[in-house]
Specification:
Shape: flat
Structural class: alpha/beta
Mean pLDDT: 80
Distance between the termini: 124 Å
Number of helices: 2
Strand order of the largest sheet: 7-1-4-3-2-6-5-8
Low-confidence stretches: none
Largest sheet: 8 strands, mixed
Strand content: 15-25%
Radius of gyration: 34 Å
Length: 187
Amino acid sequence: MRRSVIETIMGAVVLVVAGLFLFFAYSSSNVRATGGYELVARFNRVDGLANGSDVRMSGIKIGSVMAQRLDPDTFRAEVRLAIDSAIKLPEDTTARIQSDGLLGNTYMVLEPGGAEELIPPGGTIAYTQDAVNLVDLLGRFIFSPPGGAGPGAGAQQPAPQQQPEPQPQPGQPQASDGQAAPTLLQQ
């Protein structure tokens, strides 16, 4: 009987520690639901962007990606964002997809413009910039031929060959530029 009491107490301690760990992990992350208003942005490609990804302005999280879908009419990616209600965005705000490097997270960056009119709740961000596929860009850099000539650039022209300059003979007078000076016989 004594053994089962100790096992029960140890099990309870393990559950309390696991609960504290989960509470700490949740409170220190920014995974909370973002209240506020919804906006829509349309992109040609949204590589790496996922539901729950950050929406940042000046490096600070101001919202999150709520949903993504493909518009069957335009074949463009439609991204729904939840933006903090304290942040009011001008009409000419630009949305672009950015990553923290080759292996980093992908998130959306909003850059406000200078327009007086604001995007209403449920409105659309008109100016967007697609995600840059860093792996594709790196592959192009690594596998491109030297000199920047890409495929289909045509055949490279050979460099014009230079004629070797005549070397002065031993005992022959030299001009100040290192060339053989003309002699009376050569004139």
